[in-house]
Design brief:
Blueprint (H helix, E strand, L loop, with lengths): L1 E4 L5 E2 L9 E2 L3 E5 L8 E10 L6 E10 L2 E10 L2 E5 L11 E6 L5 E5 L4 E4 L9 E4 L5 E4 L5 E4 L7 E3 L3 E3 L2 E6 L6 E6 L4 E7 L2 E8 L9 E4 L3 E5 L5 E6 L8 E4 L5 E7 L4 E7 L15 E3 L5 E3 L28 E6 L2 E3 L2 E2 L3 E2 L3 H10 L5 E7 L5 E7 L5 E3 L6 E8 H49 L6
Parallel strand pairs: 1-5
Antiparallel strand pairs: 2-4, 3-12, 4-9, 5-6, 6-7, 7-8, 9-10, 10-11, 12-13, 13-14, 15-24, 16-21, 17-18, 18-19, 19-20, 20-31, 21-22, 22-23, 24-25, 25-26, 27-28, 29-36, 30-35, 32-34, 33-34, 33-36
Length: 462
């Protein structure tokens, strides 16, 4: 990535880099490069909180994206971006990107033509100053120093030390494949990790307080994430194994929730703890129609006639075929696998046959998980999925069946190929057997003829 500190493009009505507040009527502007350069990235720092390493800084950021330049307000912890406005509004300015605190108390991004790209809803609330606190919280305050807006109320994918999030709130992170979204959601009864696919969410990890206690808020401390009830009593905690104090947690591009500390020796942030230790417990490790094996390697499902896994190439476009009117489908059970994904509203107390037939009849259903347990399998749950993902190998899991939907033509094709192979094997086997018989018969005939010649030859006199 190309990176520049764009000091030559900065135009400020105050010092270009300071430990100060920004009052109404001030602005920061940064010029947009006239020609597009892929990989370009630049930041104009304009405010810093403290001298401690690493410190928090606020900046205007310009980056190249799909042939245009994207502008955003960002907060950095050292060089780690911990908050940005682009999560809430993508802004592609013309010629100039301007951050200004209006006399009305609104903080906004605009370009040279006056087009608004992002703004706070703080008009008429008496806002007078923009501050960056030593906690990394970017705030708008009035004359009495009351907070009217704060970045802590609008988290992206990172939660900072000392930050408190109330229910319902969520962190979000774009998956590595850029087509899916992960979220950590703080709900009344639990916190959970979700894969957001289309209009549906599938959970793959959760933590519930003991005795069904209700969560009021969560707070990140130096030892981990703490869950509190309405009475401000701690009801659960996720603890880090590190001796170093936690500085932030992040929902990463793999969907894992990670705690980070700062290493003074290495001069960078390092992961101290991960909620999910196993690679195969992550939802998209092997992509659609891939299986994560116990060796943490990937393979395509055997029904696809592929033995090697190639990233994102296992599906062969199957999902696009199920809703075609002339496609006949079949549900195929895969043995020795399960899915880490769970849908929010499973069907309860239906049979495996009902679960299977309902998925087969619904063209949006691509796979299912049927689980049963308890006495005589009386606790039955049917999970339907609009994708085939999160599949991992298991040694033995009694009471779980995982099935995927497959076009009948693919099954027939495999059957025809298998039948052709069997015929070829039979033909080759028959030819080999015939040659063997002829060889043996030839040997017998040769032996008999040789004996007859010997008997017909008169012996010479001594």
């Amino acid at each position: 990535m190309v990176f520049y500190l764009l000091s030559i493009f900065i135009s400020l009505l105050f010092h270009s880099f300071c430990e100060c507040d920004i009052s109404n009527g001030n602005r920061v502007s940064i010029s947009v490069p006239s020609t597009y350069k892929s990989g370009f990235e630049g930041r104009a720092y304009f405010i810093r909180a403290g001298e401690v390493v690493p410190s928090f800084k606020a900046a205007l950021s310009i980056e190249a994206l799909d042939g245009r330049y994207l502008c955003a307000l960002v907060v950095l912890f050292g060089e780690m971006e911990v908050w940005n406005s682009r999560r809430f509004s993508l802004f592609f300015p013309l010629e100039l990107c301007v951050l200004e605190l209006m006399e009305s108390g609104v903080l906004q991004l605009r370009d040279s033509s006056g087009r608004i790209g992002w703004r706070t809803g703080t008009s008429g609330q008496g806002v007078e100053r923009l501050k960056l606190l030593r906690t990394g919280n970017l705030v708008l305050t009035d004359a009495k120093n009351n907070t009217k807006w704060q970045s802590f109320d609008f988290p992206a994918h990172i939660m900072l030390w000392g930050q408190r999030l109330y229910t319902p709130t969520r962190l979000t992170s774009v998956a590595a494949d850029s087509t899916s979204l992960y979220s950590m959601e703080i709900q009344d009864e639990k916190i959970a990790l979700y894969l957001n696919s289309g209009s549906l969410n599938y959970s793959y990890w959760e933590l519930k307080p003991n005795k069904g206690q209700i969560i009021e808020f969560v707070e990140l401390g130096s030892t981990g994430l703490k869950l509190f009830s309405k009475r401000h009593r701690k009801v659960a905690q996720i603890s880090s194994n590190s001796l170093e104090p936690i500085r932030f947690l992040a929902l990463g591009k793999t969907g894992n929730l990670e705690f980070y500390h700062y290493s003074l020796y290495k001069g960078k942030f390092e992961a101290s703890f991960q909620v999910l230790n196993g690679t195969c417990d992550l939802p998209l490790t092997c992509g659609p129609y891939g299986i994560c094996r116990s060796s943490n390697t990937c393979t395509c499902m055997q029904i696809l006639n592929k033995t090697e896994h190639i990233q994102s190439e296992c599906d062969e476009g199957l999902l696009d075929k199920f809703c075609e009117s002339n496609v006949t489908v079949k549900m195929v059970e895969l043995e020795g696998v399960t899915s880490v994904l769970r849908s929010a509203h499973p069907m309860i107390n239906v049979s495996k046959e009902e679960c299977t037939s309902l998925c087969a009849a619904d063209c949006s259903c691509a796979s299912l998980l049927f689980s049963f347990g308890g006495v005589a399998g009386e606790q039955r749950e049917c999970f339907h999925y609009q994708l085939v993902g999160g599949v991992k190998q298991v040694e033995r899991e009694v009471g779980v069946n995982y099935l995927i939907k497959v076009p009948q033509e693919l099954i027939d094709g495999r059957s025809r190929n298998s039948s052709s192979i069997k015929k070829w094997i039979l033909i080759v086997g028959g030819v080999v057997n015939l040659l063997a018989v002829l060889f043996i018969l030839g040997g017998v005939v040769w032996y008999i003829l040789t004996r007859k010649r010997k008997k017909a030859t008169p012996r010479e006199n001594s």
